[in-house]
Amino acid sequence: MNHPYLDPSFLVSWSRLTPEAIRPDITEAISRAKENIRTICDQPLESLTYESTFGALEKASEDLHLGWGRIMHLDSVNDEPAQREAIGEMLPEVVAFSSSVPLNPRLWTVLKAAASCDWVKSLSPVRQRFIQETLADFRESGADLPDDVKPEYAEIEAQLSLKTKKFAENVLDSTNAWELIVEDEAELSGLPDSAKEAARLDALANGHGTEEAPRWRFTQKFTSLQPVMQFADSDSLRRRMWEGSCSIGKGGEYDNEALIAEILELRDRKAHLLGYGCFADYATSRRMAGSGANALKFINDLHDRVKPSFLKDMEAVRRYKEEKTGKPVEKLSPWETGYWSEKRRRELYAFDEEDLRPYYSVEKVMEGLFSIYSGLYGITVTPRPTVAFKPGESGESGEAPEGAVEVWHPDVLFYELHDAESGEHLGSFYADWHPRDSKRAGAWMNYLSVGEPPHGGKPRVPHLGLMVGNMTKPVGDKPALLSHREVETIFHEFGHLLHQLLSDVEVKSLSGTNVAWDFVELPSQINENWCWERESVDLFAAHYETGEKIPDELFSKMRAARNYMSGTDFMRQLCFGKLDLELHVNWPQYKGVPLEETDERILADYRVPMTDRGPSVARRLTHIFADPTGYASGYYSYKWAEVLEADAFSRFLKEGVLNPRTGRDFRRCILSKGNSKPAAELYRDFMGRDPDAEALLVKSGVL
């Protein structure tokens, strides 16, 4: 039988991946995986080898990982009813199988026996680490649990998968359910022309207004929401948009409060079953932080150091509004802070972020991005032509026309990455940058298949990855012109992608981004620094009409304004980290307490009083609640990694931001190594020392 989701071909025939094929393909993949596990279990303990145990386990579920990975990707970029139904039908079976592997007593006996064999000592350090990491994974997944407890553990895993998926669906559906149609153009005063035009075209596309009598449509997608909150002069318009944001994950059929409590309770039960005091201890036990208490201390310490700067920022905005309106302002409103802080920034620095947008066409940004890292890391990036078909409509063969790579949507681009010196094909990747109703919010990187370096006489197998975002769309005959923050996001996701595509680890499970969670953001966040240095900016910023570089005066203003309200931005990230950790360290304290009350208790010292308080951000925080684990007890890792990247980038600043020798060292010590060594060792390999936290506070202007 033909199984399109399990097709091992490097290039994916997306049009063949229909909802109808999900059940038979995943059923087949689970069957193959079960047979592979059975083969490992059936061998006599006296004749175990690496290849027949840990090596075989590494390959046992490859088909399932391949097929389900493609399905989960389509779920995030092309959500539609039939597909959603098919995923919901198969998810319990996938989770049941995945949970059963570490709970298999015979398999656990075989692996422990293999790990104690003399031949382990003669294995490569990477394979030895893989054995130790696998044993730890099994223990963390319940392998040592008593037999009578294992069914409860498996049920918890099943429920977590279902409830976190429902959480994500509620966020997407409540986002798509909200719109605001503006009929009076006067209400749009202050909005950039690009934002107005995008709203007009969006209204037309959704049946509102005509060319002669235009209307303007606004949604809760970031590219629609953010310009209004930052630039719109109308207090009423900003308030309505803010009220709309309060509806995400709140009220009616999309309310997430009960789901959040259920997810937290399940995670807490899971942690206790495994012998941990709380879920945060479970999640961080093998990360750099080491425990929930250490992660929480990290957040609390940063809070204490940042709070004075945060309070100073917010007080300055309150006084500014008071001064400009000539009226006393006791408290700001949540729909005002972005607007008045932006007006103050413009006045202080004579700098309007929108002035940068004409220099940031997405095509030029991508070209410059590739140029920067080609020079630093010794790689080449080449685009390929693409073609998109509707599912099931690409013809019988499902093949793309000659020379073109099939993609899942016409917006999607495709590239190949080679080593500049050897010419080896190291990996390929897709890029999908613009929002759609069927696509979840945010930006992310992922991989579809993991490559391998040459070993055992076998040639290199390239990696296949992707970058996805929700950036500003092209408007009329103009290209997609990005904000500076959107440019940073592209650089960020490309950092993750390079971590995967440049990985040179023979064991797939230790490859690429499969590293400690509080280390995984180092390669991504360090990349954002190249958006601020003149040498590198000149390689990707050029006026879309004239080709001229950003004028010196505008660039100087951009740099000067870099740390404007940095205390506030810093505190916002700490809020997410604090909420996440408190809920997962101290869940029994908050159990049964209304979510908004819990939110206020946890974050009272992280905020300033405002006229209105919206619902808890937890309701829509997909990082924490849209995956059985995801960033749960891990949101602190963004700040943790910022400490690492600010310190690591100091070496580039010292030796040259485009210095290929430093770049090659970063590739060799960090990007190529995956999880082949502990994260702290990899960092020391590059820097020659442990990280210095002061670097971040200085960089942010907080000290």
Overview of the molecule:
The chain has 703 residues and is α/β, with parallel strands linked by helices. The protein has four domains: 4-101 and 104-140, Endopeptidase. Chain P, domain 1 (Glutathione S-transferase Yfyf (Class Pi), Chain A, domain 2, Up-down Bundle); 163-175 and 248-351 and 561-625, Neurolysin, domain 3 (Orthogonal Bundle); 178-247, no CATH class; 358-549, Neurolysin, domain 3 (Orthogonal Bundle). 51% of the residues lie in helices and 6% in strands. It has helices at 22-42, 54-60, 62-77, 81-100, 105-115, 125-140, 150-176, 193-205, 222-231, 235-245, 257-273, 279-284, 292-325, 337-349, 362-377, 484-501, 522-527, 534-537, 552-560, 566-585, 587-590, 595-603, 622-625, 636-655, 660-671, 679-687, 694-699, and strands spanning 180-182, 216-218, 379-384, 386-388, 405-407, 413-419, 425-432, 444-449, 463-468. The strands form three sheets. Strands 3-6-7-9-8 form a five-stranded mixed sheet, with helices on both faces. The mean pLDDT is 95.
Q: Notable features of this structure?
A:
703 residues, Glutathione S-transferase Yfyf (Class Pi), Chain A, domain 2, Neurolysin, domain 3, 4 domains, 5-stranded mixed sheet, 9 strands, alpha/beta, two-stranded antiparallel ribbon
Give a nutshell description of this structure.
With 703 residues, this protein is of the alpha/beta class. Helix content is 51%, strand content 6%.
- The CATH topology assignment of the largest domain is Neurolysin, domain 3
Number of helices: 27
**Would you state the CATH class of the largest domain?**
Mainly Alpha
**Average residue-wise pLDDT:** 95
> Level of helix content?
40-55%
How does CATH name the architecture of the largest domain? Orthogonal Bundle
* Gross geometry: globular
- Strands across the major sheet, in which order? 3-6-7-9-8
Task: Enumerate the spans where pLDDT stays under 50 for 5 or more consecutive residues.
Answer: none
Strand content: 5-15%
Radius of gyration: 26 Å
Structural class: alpha/beta
Distance between the termini: 64 Å
Largest sheet: 5 strands, mixed
Secondary structure tally: strands: 9
Q: Total domains, how many?
A: 4
